[in-house]
Amino acid sequence: MEISQAETAEEAARGLARRSGGMLGRMAKRFDLYLMLLLPIAWYLLFHYGPLYGLQIAFKDFNPGKGIGGSEWVGFDHFQRFFESYYFERLLWNTLSINLFSLLIAFPVPIILALIVNELRSKSFSKWLQNITFIPHFMSVVVIVGILSVFLSPNTGPVNKLIEAFGGEPIRFMESAGWFKTIFISSNIWQNMGWQSIIYIAALSGVNPQLYEAAKMDGASRLRRIWHVSLPGIVPVIVILLILDIGHFMDVGFEKILLMQNNLNLESSDVISTFVYTTGILNGEYSYTAAIGLFNSLINLTLLLLVNRFARRTAETSLW
Amino acid sequence: MSKQATAKPVSDGRAFDIVVNVLAVLVILVVLYPLIFVVSASFSDPAKVLGGEVWLLPKGFTFEAYENILHNGKIWTGYRNTIFYAAAGTFINMIMTVLAAYPLSRPDLPGRKFLMVLITLTMFFSGGLIPTYMLVKNLGMVDTAWALLVPGAIATYNLIVMRTYFQNSIPWELQEAAHMDGCSNWRLLWSIILPLSKPILAVMVLFYAVGHWNSFFNALIYIRQESLYPLQLVLREILMISQSAAVDATVGIEDKILLAESIKYAVIIVSSLPVLVMYPFVQRHFVKGVMIGSVKG
User: Which SUPFAM superfamilies match (chain B) (predicted)?
Assistant: First the structure.
């Protein structure tokens, strides 16, 4: 009784204060919120929406003298030239295959790692495991590729020393087209599995312990408990991360590929994004490469929409 | 959870425990070995590294490689530049991210849905490399420090994480009460919201600073002058470009190759050191940041 009275009194006071502040006062209060947003929104418009204006050069023959707006329209000429070029198939295949293999091989690894962390009985050991696997995440791409090149070096690297010890011939890993994708993907796993497992570990700790008890009562082995309790418990998280990954399907690891690329492995390391960089920025073919970049983004966007839709129907989880 | 549940019966999964522990040890070895190799090689006699004698521990312990780095002017310039880019860049990042995240966390802000869509969309679609490059070029930022500080002023993901934190961790009643006391939004942000958000602010500073420290691609496309090179670009030259130079010189002076080879390991260590030394102290915060980010707002 007393409480509800106090509550109504408070509410009334609040309403009064609000009303006495008046419409103008409230707008003034929000005016400074918009003032805060001024700079960030201007920045978003300039640096994220500005390039969308510049994207029109994909359909134009960009002439620096005439500027973006004044250059001649050429329709889909650049796209046609790209589709008909001899390197189109190679670029598309490399881009698709590197990303597809990454998705198939690298995506499940952090999930497995999280399950291992979750199943370890020693809490301190599982902390150690986590902390150690995080380390490579904080190293730069340049450093990672540097480590790869010394570690896999044909003369001095321990990998080739091991091969030689077993009587094999040293392999020039970094200059081999055949090894490129394997090295790229496995070093990605090495660098990121620990970090990517964090979300899964958090999700696993949220699974209701009673479910494990119940499964145990029913005589489920630990492997079965992982399969029937742990995994279903984190499916929503898995689906969300999968969608996000597929949304960036066409541009995973561009910087690293660029660093690992050399003339000897170009056959399997030449992807759309590195081609855009070398032909666009270095050789100045802006219009042509803007068109190729647009093609790349459109595939990404299409995949994202498709997968999101599919996930919403089947797993009842989606980004929006 | 399952640890407690399975603690009692001995027969339940002894073999399973062994497999899990062995896997964990294997993962640790695989992650650590390359790092240990690089550290050991950096402290070893270059001739022994080149001869492939270094496996696990340093052979012919020496600081030679590090001494060579001390005399390398390029590395110092890179270091100094990177410290500046990281400090100034993170400062800009934080101001811009807070200024965007706070108003957007306010449920009483008209138009906030629309603004959030405007911002979130940029995570899924962009003009691409070339139009962005042309924009930065037209703004006259190419070959200036601005190109490394301004185009990346806000990471949308961080903005969303921060907004979620403001929204979920600071009681709305508190803000309303402050308003009733006649507190302006600027003061509210400065003296109530920010002091209450120290954990997330710390996480963001770390995310941004490490990002600046490790980034090389923007510098690669926007910076031509060597005096403006960040550490990562200098590093790239030493690790990847001098490699071919060293190969060309094979017939020439052996010492030169030796030096170029040995400096690589040390340079990897020196450039990663600041982040790795910080790491044990801030590791928990990073994890916290990912956790907050995974809670959808």
Answer: MetI-like (SSF161098)
